[in-house]
Amino acid sequence: MTAPSPHRVIIVGGGFAGLSAARALRKAPVRVTLIDRRNFHLFQPLLYQVATGGLSPANIASPLRAILKRQKNVNVVMEEVVEFDVAGREVVLRDGVRIPYDSLIVAAGARYNYFGHPEWEQFAPPLKTVEDATTIRGRILTAFEEAEREADPALRKAWLTFVIIGAGPTGVELAGALAEISRHTLAREFRHVNPADATILLVEAGPRVLAAYPQSLIDKAQRTLQRIGVTVRTATKVTNVEPHQVTVDAGQGVEVIPARTILWTAGVQATPLAGLLARAADAETDRIGRIIVQPDLTIAGHPEIFVLGDMAHCKGKDGNPLPGIAPVANQQGTYAGKLIHKRLLGRTVGPFKYFDKGTMATIGRAAAVVDLGWLRIGGYLAWLMWLFIHLMYLVRFENRLLVFLQWAYNYFTFNRSARLITHPNDDR
Amino acid sequence: MTAPSPHRVIIVGGGFAGLSAARALRKAPVRVTLIDRRNFHLFQPLLYQVATGGLSPANIASPLRAILKRQKNVNVVMEEVVEFDVAGREVVLRDGVRIPYDSLIVAAGARYNYFGHPEWEQFAPPLKTVEDATTIRGRILTAFEEAEREADPALRKAWLTFVIIGAGPTGVELAGALAEISRHTLAREFRHVNPADATILLVEAGPRVLAAYPQSLIDKAQRTLQRIGVTVRTATKVTNVEPHQVTVDAGQGVEVIPARTILWTAGVQATPLAGLLARAADAETDRIGRIIVQPDLTIAGHPEIFVLGDMAHCKGKDGNPLPGIAPVANQQGTYAGKLIHKRLLGRTVGPFKYFDKGTMATIGRAAAVVDLGWLRIGGYLAWLMWLFIHLMYLVRFENRLLVFLQWAYNYFTFNRSARLITHPNDDR
């Protein structure tokens, strides 16, 4: 009377790739175990809005169990993976539990790369988790509070100097939001300083902001950033980060910038799980630790192991690796889920093809740049598109409605209500 | 050419009392300094909803600067008060700054009282700050996650046992919300345990829940709690709290209850600032550290020092001290602000009189008890009243709308979206 035991799929990571893979398997005769250290899926593209007090963490995070509650073939496990037993086809959890698999999907994401200077992280925090976001939010708001109470003009200026290192989409969006906060949100809230006097410095080692975008949009973005009060310093390398200052080098000798708030959004690398898996499966990795995958997103020699999203080095049409963005992760997850389903039906599937729907970034209030390939625009219309698309992709309906209302409120009142300085280790 | 320097008012604490006092002074010829350790006003009556994932912290917290930005005679200072120099009429801040005053209003609130056992706090966290609320939220959600993965039935039962110590309004509301989470919100989200099997124990040393309410409402509340799955244990003293168990004594010998989640909502005491002020101003305090105030809310012998809200022991009509609830604090703040204004105009003001608009408490989903004196009801209508009144009192319009929508969503879907387990000290 025993039914044939179903094909067992383990998915490591409940981000865009892992969740898409789980959903693509909803009608497949499989038993899925989704493993994540956190109990929620995080909509990372909007994390900078939490860091700048525009949204609450719960607005952009949905419990994984709630998302998957109706998909009966999925079991969610909240735990950390510490080992891949590739020969025995088991994943080992931190508490020692071993979970067997027939197919394994690993999509545990990326983190920031401090270019060999891990000690910089404490002075220039990254923006990857909700805790990072609330920490940064606290630091930004505290800086204005400290400036308000500081009598020494030099120190006051240091408190009002915000340096953002890395001018990719996250850096640009963070700088734009900071400009909006200092120029609009905090206007008239202080009695001794004018928040609009804040210096917002966007430092980029490369020659341009938003390096992956076409030149016409980059020009628009640079102009917009300058108009709203962000000082853009491209071709400027960071050579040191200390508690209260950043040292940069733009080719004419080093310059020390006193700043009490330094934020890091430069360069990414795969999470340590990628290295763990690469060693276990004898897989090749690239310079930033991503696993180089086959055209079907599996590891060479291991057709049962898929690597997706920011952890995967997957070549695009032009031969360059695909960028670490949500659409790539979503499409890869769907592909891997479907491939596993089709394999079980005895069918074959062609290689993964990324369909590029375009990229976009906001630059503060009512301004964005959008590159859809066939359409490249900046300004207000681009911002409306950005708004619409991000709302559409927010996972749960309720979040969509609440985020929309929060944005409408923020837009019309210039206010941001989620401006809480919270203290993780506080006995108050 | 020097104008007469305006009367200087210091308000310590941006809670209900402090904020009401500041607002009552908006047309007075004074210069107000509002000092708070936090940068936001917290709507404490809804804090239990943050602890149970129904609302986000920012929904019930508003930045003090934003609330007061249009009131030009107020200066907000985010800092801790460490000393009252009553003779010199100065308040000393943690960073050594001394701020002079002509009138001083102290309204720094209360905290929980562990009845001489401060070591219990780490095992049975209190619910007073947003950090407390997110900590409790994490513990509750983690307990279900651990139960899901626990093989040992006894341990699984301990993970699914929630003990709430203290059956005042906060304890009752917390127990009701926990019942709703386990019976409705988490239904069908787990594969190995049924969250509805959770034991929710409300332990109260006194003879009744909601001691301050009339007996008919208490009976309604007890019946409702039982109906929704809360086990009420009145006349039961807690004699010990350990990491994984609570020891109680109901008069028939001690009983040990294994439980992995223990929450504390029993008894309050004034914050340490009350003791500091009492010593400095030679003021009398009561058993729980509150300062005994004159009929005009000042300290005997110090007509320039007002003590308001949870820190004040202020007798009501019946001779008993007024309860530590928001309406008392609001009315006291308004009274003190007006009194200071009238004094400056050379007028006198009668003693403070509390106008009792009634009390209310929710008991889980669509049930509440309301006592307005002339009206005592329970059930659905009481719940609608509770809803309406709490929405009306939420400080900012936007919060009102967002909270209303969040509640509507929670009600119709049985879901709670702010279910994040966050880690304060996490390097993940």
Overall description:
- The structure is a homodimer of 428-residue chains.
- Chain A is α/β, with parallel strands linked by helices.
- In chain A, 32% of the residues lie in helices and 24% in strands.
- The first copy, chain A, has eleven helices and 25 strands.
- In chain A, a hairpin with a 4-residue loop joins strand 6 and strand 7 (90-93).
- The radius of gyration of chain A is 23 Å and the shape is globular.
- Chain A starts with 6 loop residues before the first strand and ends in a 15-residue tail after the last helix.
- At the A-B interface, strand 4, strand 5, helix 4 and helix 11 of A face strand 4, strand 5, helix 4 and helix 11 of B.
Give a topology summary.
2 copies of one chain form a homodimer.
Chain A: E1 7-12, H1 16-24, E2 30-36, E3 40-42, H2 47-51, E4 61-63, H3 64-67, E5 74-78, E6 81-85, E7 90-93, E8 98-100, E9 103-106, E10 110-112, H4 130-149, H5 153-159, E11 161-165, H6 169-185, E12 199-203, H7 215-228, E13 230-233, E14 237-242, E15 245-249, E16 254-258, E17 261-264, E18 268-270, H8 272-281, E19 291-292, E20 298-299, E21 302-307, E22 312-313, H9 326-344, E23 359-362, E24 368-371, E25 376-379, H10 380-393, H11 397-413
Parallel strand pairs in A: 1-2, 1-9, 2-5, 9-21, 11-12, 11-17, 12-13, 19-22
Antiparallel strand pairs in A: 3-4, 6-7, 7-8, 10-18, 14-15, 15-16, 20-21, 23-24, 24-25
